[in-house]
Amino acid sequence: MSSAACTNIRPHIKSDDLDFLHQKPSQWRDTINKQYVQSEKSKTTILFGGMSLLQDQLVQSALQSLGENYIALSNPDFISFQKGKAYGNRGQCNPTYFTVGNLVKHLEHLRDVEGLSTEKIINEYAYMTSGGCGPCRFGMYITEYRKALRDSGFEGFRVLNFNHDDGIFQEDEKDNTIKLSPKFFITLVKAILIGDIINILTYKIRPYEINKGDTDKAVQRCKDIISNAFMEKKNLILAMRRCKKVLKEVKLDRLQPKAKVMVMGEFWAAMTEGDGNYNLHRFLEEEGAECIPQPILSRLMLSIWEAKYALSRVETLNVEDAKIIDFTIAKKKTMILSAKIAVKLYFKIYSKAIGLNNYEIPDMEKLAKLSKDYYPIDSNGGEGHLEVAHLIESIKENKSHLVISIKPFGCMPSSGVSDGIQSLVTSRFAGSNFLPIETSGEGAVNFYSRVQMALFKAKQASKEEFEKLNIPENIPDKIHDFTYQPKGKQAGSAAVLLESLN
Fold first, then answer.
1. How far apart (Å, rounded) are the C-alpha atoms in residues 348 and 413?
2. How far is CA 20 from its chain centroid?
3. What are the tens digits of pLDDT across the range 33-42?
4. What are the structural domain ranges in the chain?
5. Which of 147, 192, 199, 187 is nearest to 33 (CA)?
6. What is the pTM of this model?
7. Which of 159, 346, 371, 480 has a beta carbon 3.0–4.6 Å from 388's, enabling a disulfide?
């Protein structure tokens, strides 16, 4: 650029614009907003989100049945991502931008479309999310929400959080915050588990539907049935049986060889169903695959396992008198065991009612043993050792033709730790098909290209596996009933069905 051009630019720069260069640096501190108190319950709407679409809606109904005014946000989209980047700090991860931007987008809609004043929104709405510490940016989410809300014109909007590591007893007797009672958590867990079960069945059924769209329509009916059961306090088991009849109406051709793909990775990126992971699950199905999703059940069982493991480490510490019984530890052990039994019991009861048979609840002890030679199980950030364990389990037990680990760009626990270890795992297990892939909100073309290359190999393996088996002349009708779910040595669902007939 010429000196003349540079001279022409200078007059547009005002001296006031450079005042920040002479300001004395100061420490920025996060200001905690006033808390939600029980006296405000009747006039406060609590917004939330972050699970699968179905689960968000079921949780909304479940909590409203308790008299709580909870509203699920819409699915985060690319506009949410753009708003998150506009108002958020640089270097945050994908889930932060999507979820923070989604909240800002909703509040702007309330203000600009529905006509609510900013003051009314701040005083009569709040946002609930999970929090906690860790080696990644997850511990900074709350600050990011408050920073983005301030910069978007909603300073003072309340962001409430519960620590996902603190268990179900988080009531505050002083009435200065939201009460998360055992009843609240039990109802919440029921909604989440039912959502998990229906989601698992959805991914088992949809790839084999004869009429495209039938599965989604059936799942929508199931969502309405379960939501109404929560709101009207009806028997959830009977509601799940009604859902079983609805899902049976979907006509299937299950003897199609489909590549089975396990989708795992960072919690939000692996679970979301939208722009946050480039609609990965739908894309895989359109490309001829069947997905194995990671249910929230896995996260619940991991949290229970981590609590038990941490307690076992405390018990190994030297004490002055080993004969003294620590009743605090005994109480915690009882609570952990009770939580594990309750989660597994609810899951099995609801699974049986709707027809999800032979589903194996993740065995955390087994997964820890599989990964301990590769991953330090004392490191519990992110998904901990689960990613490594799931890959090894999939390879050893032939559970899938492809394992995809999806995560935000630069996710330290997943990209920086797990992926580094996975290279050792794949080098020791010949023939493994593993794809680690990051998301950043942009770059969909490159993302899809990498998935297609890995999927091509998986589809070939599925086809070869299927063609090795004999197709009987008379195929029984049960083969196309989704409740017929035999186990087998093959990875593909169609191959397992044929194997069960031979």
1. 31
2. 42
3. 666 666 777 8
4. 38-180, 184-248, 259-501
5. 147
6. 0.88
7. 371
